[in-house]
Every structure is written in structure tokens, then in C-alpha cells.
Amino acid sequence: MFITRIFYGIAYFMVLIFEIIKATVDVAIRTVNGKVEPVIVEIPTILKRPISQTILANSITLTPGTLSVDLDSENKVLKVATIVARKNEDVIPFEPYIKGMLE
Amino acid sequence: MDDILTIIRSILLVVSAVFILLAAFGILRFKDDLERVLYARIHILGVADMACILALLVLGEPLLAGAYFILAPFASHAMANGFYYGEDKQ
User: Fold this and answer.
1) CB contacts < 8 A (A, B)
2) Which among A32, A58, A64 has CB closest to B46?
3) Is A28 in contact with B69 (Cβ distance < 8 A)?
4) Which helix (H) or strand (E) holds A31?
5) Which of A22, A28, A31, B71 gets the highest tally of CB atoms within 10 A of its CB?
6) Which residues contact B87 (CB under 8 A, 6 or more apart)?
């Protein structure tokens, strides 16, 4: 349904802005107190279309503190560098919104 | 009314200036002895990106801010990808 997709798009944008603000403050605090330990993790995703995977990877890179390194489109796996080790769900909180928006 | 807008703009500009200052401090702070320090530097540069987008929005250039918002991830992604696969070959 078209209206539902527009609603999911607006919700995705709101969640993205909120996550960016949260992550910016978090990384700025980590810069001051020095608790930085970069790791690379592999994150499986549920998105199937390449365009939604690309939007997910771009959103991950846009959030400070997480950085997508590589995307395996067929196996649906993202390589993500995070500033400290954290849970997979905390790295991609906007995945269900992209799923509702484009799939 | 005009005064309030000016004060809000000034506060937002000062906030973005503080973030840019913190980013510069972070780039210089972490030395090469930290493991995989390049990723930490790219993460800290993301803070500077967001501060610049905020400053452009406040200064009344929304189209420039939107272009920056869309194009900023590509540079970070290219640097990280090149470093990751270059490290593999060594």
C-alpha cells in the first residue's frame, strides 16, 4: 500500500535523525574520555532488494560510530566497523523501517 | 521575534563549533599504537560531518546540506573499503 510506505519513509527519517544525534554525542564523549576500541563485525540483514541494502549501508555510515566496510548482496551480510563492540540490533535500529518502506 | 531567532542560530552555531573542535582534538589524540586506528579516525570525522551539516542548515543553505548529507558516506565507505582489503594482502 502506497500510503503505508510514505508513513514508513517519514518514520525512517525521524529514527535516522534521532540515531544520528544520539551517536554524535556518544562519539564526542568517547573522544574526550578515550574509550575507543575499533572492531569489525559481520551483521546479517533481512533485506532482499539491492537498493534497500544500499540505503541500509549508507544509513550505517551516516551514523557516527558505525561504518559499513563491505556489502555481500547475495548472502545478505554486511561488514560493519564499530567504535566499540556492541549488539547487532543496536547497529541497525532502522532496518524494519526500510523493510516497510521498500520491500 | 527576530532576536529569538538570532539567539537560536547563535547557540546552534556554537554547538557545531564545539563538535568540530572535539573532532580535531580526537584526530590528533589517538596515535598509531592503537589497533585499527584508521577506523577510529573515520568515526571521529563523522562527528565533524554532522556538525558541518548543522552549520549549513543554520546558515540558510538547505540544498548544500542535503547534498552533503547524501554524499558524505561515500568517501568514508571508499576509505574504509580500501584500507580493509589493502590490509588483507600484506
Assistant:
1) 85
2) A64
3) no
4) helix A2-33
5) A31
6) none
